[in-house]
Amino acid sequence: MYVQAETPSGVVRGRRDSFGELYHAVPYAAAPIGPGRFLAPAPHPGWPGVRDGTRPGPTAPQPVRDFGGLDMTPYFGPGWVRGDEYLTVDVRTPAADGGRRPVMVFVHGGGFVTGSARAALYDGRAFSRDGIVLVKVNYRLGVPGFLDLEGAPPNRGLLDVLAALGWVRDTVAVFGGDPGDVTVFGQSAGATLTGALLATPEAKGLFRRAIVQSGSGTGAFTPEQAARVTAAAASALGAEPTARAFGEIPDGRFVEILPALAGLDLRTETAEDPLAGLSPFSLVSPVQPADGPLDGGVSLLIGTNTEEGNLYGRTDLGHTLFGAGTERLARAHARISGGHTHRYSFGHRSTALNGRLGAAHTVELPFVFDVAGEPWLHGEAGLLGPDPAPEGLAARMHAAWVAFARTGDPGWPADTVEFFG
Asked: Percentage helix, strand, coil, to 5, in the chain?
């Protein structure tokens, strides 16, 4: 059946199902069009009448990514669904009734170039079932989101997430959530962005808790490294490396040049490539988030999978890419948080790819979202492989995430590591 919620920007129509209410593609900022793609997110002007939120909306411009025999569609979602208005959130709530429920804001991964809130893994019905208001954020990717350009604010994708958190503060009560009880959680690139929020002064007060899944507190490019990517992009496009020049170029061209940016040597005299060549985009900062002025008042749940690199067919980069930066961020937070840093390790081995995938990057997500039994995650090409998921693991892991969002305590002592596997 149809339901409606009256937000400060206008009325939006959603759908009710057995898990609660779902509202798709609710704008948190104005559409990034033309030169506006390289500006900070602007407030949405609102809409007359009733906005249709019963169907998924557009996604950020992005390429197709291929992982060979592994079906990663549940992770990446539908790819680029064209449309200007993609700075939106999807909201799943038990009811838009003015209640004061805990809020969880999810920031998707995808190497800073792909992904969306539309991915099947992030359906969120289990969170709604368990009394959580789930908000899933789309943000700018690739060139519009993260390329460092003269005349443009840096880290525009991160600015989008900040704007979405501002929207949550101002609007989530309409959807039955408590704006004073917000947990931000992200995976991969989304986890790196979540970690950066801990060191972003403008984010202070917008959330109480954070969960960093397979991210890195040392994943930012230095300005020198970012400048190499900018020079390569400008050369591929035949344009000056300025926001003004890039503002005239269509999104399709930004997607087309991505292969020309792959494999750039970003090693410098002072820094290694923090992403080990997996993406030409990341945050840009002279100081890594783990070394910045972290907000010790925010509780943190942080961890990695035991075989992260297996997703990329490389067993040598898991610790370098995720583990070391996660450990550095966890230690830095523990020093200032007064016992509010909880750690986990995920070790369940997927039997996908003839057992070679193992406890790889992304494999924890079906358990966090409590969808590990879904048939589209199984079979020879499924993320979890042909074998059934272990009994009770999804329920235990999902319950820990919900408990942390409710109380800041996932169920084990701070500064110890809980193993899921």
From this structure: 30, 20, 50
Contact between 366 and 372 (Cβ < 8 Å)? yes
Q: Say which of 188, 282, 337, 350 is annotated catalytic.
A: 188
Q: What is the pLDDT along the chain (421 residues), one digit of tens a residue?
A: 999 999 999 999 999 999 999 999 999 999 999 999 999 999 999 999 999 999 999 999 999 998 989 999 999 999 999 999 999 999 999 999 989 999 999 999 999 999 999 999 999 999 999 999 999 999 999 999 999 999 999 999 999 999 999 999 999 999 999 999 999 999 999 999 999 999 999 999 999 999 999 999 999 999 999 999 999 999 999 999 999 999 999 999 999 999 999 999 999 999 999 999 999 999 999 999 999 999 999 999 999 999 999 999 877 797 778 999 999 999 999 999 999 999 999 999 999 999 999 999 999 999 999 999 999 999 999 999 999 999 999 999 999 999 999 999 999 999 999 999 9
Q: Is 350 a catalytic residue?
A: no
Is residue 214 flagged as an active site residue? no
Tell how strand 101-107 and strand 177-187 pair up. Answer: parallel
Q: Does domain 2-420 have CATH number 3.20.20.20?
A: no
Whole-prediction pTM:
0.98
The yes-or-no answer on residue 398 being catalytic is no
Q: Which of 369, 174, 215 is nearest to 302 (CA)?
A: 215
